[in-house]
Amino acid sequence: MPSLTRITNQYLTVDVSSLGAEMQTLATSDGRSWLWNGDAAFWSGRSPVLFPIVGKAPDDVLAIGGQTYSMGQHGFARRAEFALASASATTCRYELASSPATKAVFPFDFLLAVEHTLDGRALTVAAEVTNRDQRPMPFGFGFHPAFVWPLPGAGGQDHVITLDNLGEPGLVRLEGGLISASRLASPFKAGRLVLDHGMFEQDAMIFPEGAGKGLRYGVEGGPTMHFSFENLPNLALWQKPGAPFICVEPWHGMAAEKNGSKELAERPYSLTLPPGEISRFAFTVEIVE
After folding, report:
1. What's the Cα-to-Cα distance from 218 to each of 33, 271, 282, rounded to whole Å?
2. Which pairs count as long-range contacts for 26-30, CB under 8 Å and 24+ apart, including other chains?
3. Is the pLDDT reported for residue 230 higher than 80?
4. pLDDT of residue 289
5. Which residues contact 32 (CB under 8 A, 6 or more apart)?
6. Within its chain, how far is the Cα of 32 from the centroid?
7. DSSP strand pairing (67-70 vs 61-64)
8. Which of 108, 149, 166, 215 could form an S-S bond across to 133 if both were Cys, CB 3.0 to 4.6 Å?
9. According to the model, what pLDDT value does residue 16 have?
């Protein structure tokens, strides 16, 4: 059975599961919950880690160097049991090492470490991917955290995403879970997007570039969460239509393109990590009511 590790300080409490190194709760000291509760009637995820792919592969088949492998949406890490490598009052680190089971679908030696750290009113979730193999390793990586919508105490109020860079990034949609070739006009106006449940009737809103390195999610004059991103150039916003959550998803890598290559290395924004090298990805969320 998965185990839980709790980290806490005077402002925040976070629980992290060994299954997927997935955050299970994010609560302020007054008892209010900010993370989605995983109600399976809508979506059982809470904050999955996406590795070694983000999104879908065509027919759930991935090609690596011409060889094909079965790979479900968002990869296998979110359903894998991680080992607790270290823990203190305010930080915990979980690790997933390659195994015969992972090599059957992703033929590389690797180490994936996920660390949750509290600092004041901020939580940082950082991941390190180490290539322990003797050859370059292609992969994608992403975070998929879901937060309550409406935010605590903000029922009935407009919830707004505001990009730090005030940009108007172009939008792409999914067709059958794959990236559409069509590029659509930005729904942002001067960096501002008022959320509406109808926006998600066509699945996720994906912004391949231009969303910048940070954003705010909240209500005017009310509860707000500020996000900053490290080495995560892609952004997606998603919910099950009508569900009481919103996913703010920073990625480095996206689903395969419709009618595109099955090769992992040729997917949009995939990385190729040299032997012995480490890639780091992180997001920080601060509750700034």
Report:
1. 14, 32, 21
2. 26/123, 26/147, 26/285, 28/287
3. yes
4. 77
5. 152, 153
6. 22
7. antiparallel
8. 108
9. 98
Encoded tokens for 98: 């390659």
Enter the tokens of residue 206.
């994906």
What is the separation, in whole angstroms, between the first and last Cα of the chain?
Answer: 36
Name the residue ranges covered by the structural domains of the chain.
4-156+238-284
Question: Which residues 6+ apart lie within 8 Å of 31 measured at CB?
Answer: none
The pLDDT, as a whole number, for residue 1 is 86
Any idea which residue has 């960096």 for tokens?
191
Closest CA to 129 of 102, 99, 98, 152: 98
- The first and second tokens of residue 101, run together, are 């089971």
- CATH code for residues 4-156+238-284: 2.70.98.10
Helix (H) or strand (E) run with residue 100 in it = helix 100-103
**pLDDT tens digits for range 255-287:** 999 999 999 999 999 999 999 999 999 999 999
